[in-house]
Amino acid sequence: MIVCIAVVGHQNNPLYIQSFTEADDALKLHHIVHCSLDVVDERVNNPKKSGPMINETFLGLLYPTENYKVYGYLTNTKVKFILVTTDLDVRDADVRNFFRRFHSAYLDAVSNPFHVPGKKITSKTFAERVSTIVKSVSFNTAG
Amino acid sequence: MANFLAQFLSIKNSCERVVIAVEDVSDLWPLVKKGFEERLPIRRATLNNKTRNPVYVDNLPAEFILTTDSRLRSRFPQEQLLFSFREPYATVVLVTCEDLDEFKTILKPRLKLIVQNDEREWFIVFVSRAPPHNDQASKMAKKVYAKLEVDFSSKKRERCCKLDMHGPEATFWEDLEFKITECIRNTLDRRIQFYEEEIRKLSEQRFKPVWSFCNFFILKESLAFMFEMAHLHEDSLREYDELELCYLETVNIAGKQRDFGGMDHGDDQAALLNPGKKPLTQIVQDDSFREFEFRQYLFACQAKLLFKLNRPFEVASRGYSFVISFSKALALHESILPFCIREVWIITSCLDLVNATAAHYSNGLVGPEIEKEYYRVRGELYSLCRAKFMRLAYLLGYGSAIERSPVNSASLSMLPWPKPATWPSVPSDASSEVLAKEKMILQATPRAKHFGIQRKPLPLEPTFLLREANRRRASLSAGNIFEMFDGRSNFMDGSTSPSPKLPPTSMSRTNSTPGNFESSIDRPMKLAEIFVAAEHALKKTISDNGLWTSFSSLQEFEKKYLELSKSAAENYHHSWWKRHGVVLDGEIAAVCFKHGEHDLAKKSYEKVCALYSGEGWEDLLADVLPDLAECQKILNDQAGYLSSCVRLLSLDKNLFLKKERESFQSEVVRLAHGDMDHPVPLDVSSLITFSGNSGPPLELCDGDPGNLSVTLWSGFPDDITLDSLSLTLTATSNADEGVKAIRSAGATVLNPGRNTITLSLPPQKTGSYVLGVLTGQIGHLRFRSHGYSRGGPAESDDLMSYEKPTRPILKVFKPRALVDLAAAVSSALLMNEPQWVGIIVKPINYSLKGAVLHIDTGPGLRIEESHAIEMEKYGLEDKNNASVVKEITKLTLTNGSIELPDWASNIESVLWVPVRAINEGLARGTSAGAVSSGRPSVVDGLRTVALKLEFGVSHNQKFDRTIAVHFTNPFHVSTRVADKCSDGTVLLQVILHSQVKASLTIHDAWLDLKDGFALAGQSNGRPTSAFFPLVVPSTSRAGILFTISPGTNDEAKAMNPDTILNIKYKISGDRNLGSHTPMFEDEATQMLTFKSALVLQRPVLEPCLAVGFLPLPSGGLRVGQLFTMKWRVERLKYLDEENNDEVLYEVNANSENWMIAGRKRGHAPLSTKQGSRIEISILCVPLAAGYVRPPQLELPDIGEGNISCNPAGPHLVCVSPPPLSSSFCIPIPA
């Protein structure tokens, strides 16, 4: 299950963060997303390590913990998408596909002339679209 | 082959070094042993690795063993093959012989026998015992050695070397080392090949049922061990890696039920770095290697090699992934393993890894990138360990001591509970412990947040422990009890999923009371019971006393918790992952705070807050900032506390309740009005923002004050009173110009949201200005704001992007003409009559509202104060349409100044001031045709009016202007004798030149004659009345003839020294053009009188003196040429009154045209006799070419009428230009 999806600006400021848990524990997901920026920074600042990934927007698995996984995606404008999922058996291709769809939703949201670049995304349409994407995605390899 | 395992292990354990066999043929070993063993370990050896590439090995350990030694004897051939790693790698044959025959017959056949075994790598050391002085013996030895070489060495390989016991031979030892190395290398190559071949064969059979992992393991490990002995650690490591890979493939093949292991006492302590912790024989049963122990064993072998390779960072990183993957394996078998062994194992393995790597690691060993990565992994290990440690502590009931922070919640709430097959139950004798735990639960009070902030604490548990534990109860697990229990739990709270609405802390309380389960099969455990049960179970699991101590009490737990957090944070700080480190600092701070170390807590909290606010993570900031504020409050750090309050207020409004925000504000206000030791400045940029009003900037002329309206956005939840407020303006053009502050008077109350305040603005310098800084005071508190808002409330993420507004709020223009004052007419006005002087007041895009005009008339002019000053519009449109009656405003002059009416503030208007120019003198007429002009000078009629206009918002603008007004008489009078009658009567023509731009109507004119003249004909000296009224249009002339006769009576001699012409006239002119009718109240008295004195000449025939101009030289005049000008003065008649035999003369000449030498003025003797004459001459040089007026001779003492000019002098003379020469040459008179 995707528990959280976040858009983080190029100054590492949160632009959009939405959790999909029932419990009132969004703050811990904020924390996870925020800390995962460490990994994004590390990958971006150490191109040697990432190697052939250099021109790849999809950053892959950032955080292999026991209980959840964090995936990252970096747009050309250095906006990061962070995905936290509790599914432990996930195919990269599925995540990649999810990010691609999310990216296009994001593009539509920031192309809104009333959106101030670098400011939080407040569009309800965007929120609806994101939750639709999240609901439609299933990372289960069985499925 | 499986039965070889035990043997293999014992062989492996007994074997440590590369063995070099010594075949002591001639019993020499005791002699040379010392020298040989000194050479060990082999300092530098070149060996081939698995891929046949040369590898340099330093200090290769080796051991010399005699072939007769028991260790090398009695081995089975098969054993030798399989365990060949322990067989000698080289054989040294020690021989000596002093006799050639002996060599041939005895030694040689024996040696041949020894070396015939191909498997061995051998060489011969010939020891010469011949003393150096014995030539015979040494010769012999040489011969024998030569023979030996011929027999055993080949071209391909040198197999002999010679040791001279008495003559030390330096090259021998090198030779020996080289040969030993060569042998070892060759043997190693051969053995590698053998093992590889065997392994390959075995690998091919891998999927056959007969295949045995044990055999594979023995071969692989033998090879690895051989590499390790030869110090080829890299190769050895590769073998272990392959072995691990192979094991993981086989171990996961389904269908083969294996024993996992991990059930022994002490298994909870990781054996990650200790390969010998358990003998391998223990963990192998029927060709099945127990996963739990064997994987740890393999990792331990790898770690050992990595440490030998000096790569502790790799141990750490491999270790971390091993722990993660092994944890998964443990999770699969959790139900059969002891309670919580997974967690305990992870804790111990992480600690082992960090300790062992730290012991082997020193900074600077590797590049900075690897170093950072190393520290990151250590941080990860610590934080993994920390999470598991907290989990166990929670199970023991220390949950209330764990901070419910995002980081702890993230690591614990998604971590499932341990899943033992059955949850441990409470020992029967533990009721007192249960009571103690229950007491602890009741005593635990969640830490109340400062400012009375109420937040639902974040969860630390994935689901409710109470439910989870009871679900796995041993007593309930009989039969199909899970389904039954699930049904019951639905009954209990109506849902299968834990209700998120209830906070866990309150949950534990409500559920710790016995429920309504008394009647069911088994009463569910209470929370305290669960804790006690877990404690007992864990005590059984944990074999490490040190670790168990950490769980023994709350203090011990906190100590360990702090230690782990600190270590994790410290390591993260050394890595790339700064955020992880800082966040853990926050956890450390929470513990410090709890222990009253507020100072440390504050420092750490500050770091965390700086991190979150720097990147704009407000939700997280809102969680920590109150804690920081509380620390600051306790430490009495007023500045910090205030700034924290302000930061709390400036966070997103949705993050706090209104009540909470109000309490932040009340804290600020309380401190501001309280007694602060040191009034602190406070930055409220994020809270109070300001901007200019939308629309164009305020525009001011230079020197004008104004009112600046500014919008302030207050982020305070309530009204707030600002005791003072000032705002700086910064000039955009000129940075050097200091900023100027404008203040608002009095206190300002800001409402939440938008406020508009107006500040009065003193005059500013030219330029455009933007808003600078807002400063002010709340109580004793000086605040300051740099926050600019762009027409809306400051958004939360404005925190990061302060943009200086570029839009100017104020423009002060350069000094320019704001108004113009000018005279309305340029033509002359009537002298000595009341006249309107028009002053055009022309505002130039500037309002003259309230302007005051000071009028100061110069000498000879005064204002007719009896009349009001008039003001009217000035413009062309009125001229086109005369029917429009001009609006005229009457104004009165007070103290020399008048106030301009409001209607005239923006339009051009004209101000009519009644004045009278005064000239005491009488106008004088001139004689027509007279050469010298006696006309009155224009300057005489000039009067000035000094004007000073004060205007602007506060009369700050001044405008000074002096205007000149020209006054004149209506006529200029000239006279001429038109004719002379025989009776002496003269026709005097009086010519009137109109001087004004107005029509003059003469109604009457008469002469008051001077003595000696009398009017002829008429009685009253008037021309025929039928002439009148005579209209004289502007600037035209009119003439009047009078007949006068020189009279004889001298009666009124004293009364009439001059002849006066009197004219009564009317004037009709427009004041807009020039002279006009003077203002009178009464129309009837509009008749004006003009008087002018006339010069009447005596009759032309009776002059006293005649002045004649003598002719000029015939050659003409030339510039620069000297000539003499002569006049002849002749007395025609003697005048009694003159009574003088001299005449005063004066020569006047224009100095620009003439240079005159000689007396210009003087008395010339002239006899009183009639007819006497004199000549007056003067030297002249013309200076300018052209027609110029010649010098004139005047006789000042003699009246004009008594002089006759005959012949009259020329008006103009022609002066030729100078001759074309570069210098003036004056011809010398001949």
Automatic annotation (TrEMBL), chain A:
<keyword id="KW-0256">Endoplasmic reticulum</keyword>
<dbReference type="InterPro" id="IPR006722">
    <property type="entry name" value="Sedlin"/>
</dbReference>
<dbReference type="GO" id="GO:0030008">
    <property type="term" value="C:TRAPP complex"/>
</dbReference>
<dbReference type="GO" id="GO:0005634">
    <property type="term" value="C:nucleus"/>
</dbReference>
<dbReference type="GO" id="GO:0005794">
    <property type="term" value="C:Golgi apparatus"/>
</dbReference>
<dbReference type="InterPro" id="IPR011012">
    <property type="entry name" value="Longin-like_dom_sf"/>
</dbReference>
<dbReference type="InterPro" id="IPR007233">
    <property type="entry name" value="TRAPPC"/>
</dbReference>
<keyword id="KW-0813">Transport</keyword>
<keyword id="KW-0333">Golgi apparatus</keyword>
<comment type="subunit">
    <text>Part of the multisubunit transport protein particle (TRAPP) complex.</text>
</comment>
<dbReference type="GO" id="GO:0006888">
    <property type="term" value="P:endoplasmic reticulum to Golgi vesicle-mediated transport"/>
</dbReference>
<protein>
    <recommendedName>
        <fullName>Trafficking protein particle complex subunit</fullName>
    </recommendedName>
</protein>
<dbReference type="Pfam" id="PF04628">
    <property type="entry name" value="Sedlin_N"/>
</dbReference>
<dbReference type="InterPro" id="IPR044760">
    <property type="entry name" value="TRAPPC2L"/>
</dbReference>
<keyword id="KW-0931">ER-Golgi transport</keyword>
<dbReference type="GO" id="GO:0005783">
    <property type="term" value="C:endoplasmic reticulum"/>
</dbReference>
<dbReference type="GO" id="GO:0005737">
    <property type="term" value="C:cytoplasm"/>
</dbReference>
<comment type="similarity">
    <text>Belongs to the TRAPP small subunits family. Sedlin subfamily.</text>
</comment>
From TrEMBL, chain B:
<protein>
    <submittedName>
        <fullName>Uncharacterized protein</fullName>
    </submittedName>
</protein>
